[in-house]
Design a protein that fits this description.
This protein is mainly beta. Helices cover 12% and strands 30% of the residues. The protein starts with a helix and ends in a 12-residue tail after the last strand.
Length: 176
């Protein structure tokens, strides 16, 4: 399954090479892409040959499942692309938990994803590194700040990003 998915992503990158700023920048290892696994709570950067380059732990939506509507606290699933990369160091956010506006809530960068019909979904850092590895976000993919800093030089507008579902079976069901 993973191999056929990667082949499909590589085909899409060939059809839509917007992840590369120029054809020259795509030479060598080829265009890269990201796979975010809600199953393993990880984000992996792959090069154009389908080889994992980096893997980082993540936090994702507080509620399991695919995003249905704004405010449902789910991370959307599917194949998306990077819409823009923003410096978020000065951004603040009110999580509605009574603590008010939190400076640095998004860490140093916000990688906005094009996730129709949803908006405002991205990959970003955090003011709360202890949340990594848990379901803790309002729908975004959260990384440790040092991980998003290490990742940012490899991210390009147009880069493909796949967010895969959490395939855990309901309690009491087994595949044995």
């Amino acid at each position: 399954m993973k191999r056929s998915l990667r082949i499909g992503l590589l085909f899409l990158m060939w059809l839509f090479p917007s992840g590369c700023r120029t054809m020259h920048s795509c030479s060598g290892s080829g265009a890269s892409y990201l796979i975010v696994s809600k199953q393993t709570m990880s984000l992996t950067l792959y090069n154009g040959r389908g080889e994992a380059v980096f893997e980082y732990p993540i936090a994702c939506g507080l509620v399991a499942g695919n995003k249905v509507e704004a405010g449902d606290m789910r991370t959307p699933e599917g194949v998306f692309y990077v819409q823009e990369i923003r410096d978020a160091a000065d951004w603040k956010h009110d999580f509605g938990d009574g603590k008010g506006w939190i400076a640095g809530a998004y860490g140093p960068y916000f990688i906005r994803l094009y996730t129709p019909p949803h908006s405002g979904i991205g990959i970003h850092g955090t003011h709360l590194p202890s949340s990594i590895g848990a379901r803790a976000t309002e729908g975004c993919v959260r990384l440790r700040n040092e991980d998003v800093r290490a990742l940012i030089p490899y991210i390009r507008v147009g880069m493909l990003v796949e967010i895969t579902p959490d395939y855990r079976l309901p309690q009491g069901i087994s595949c044995d």
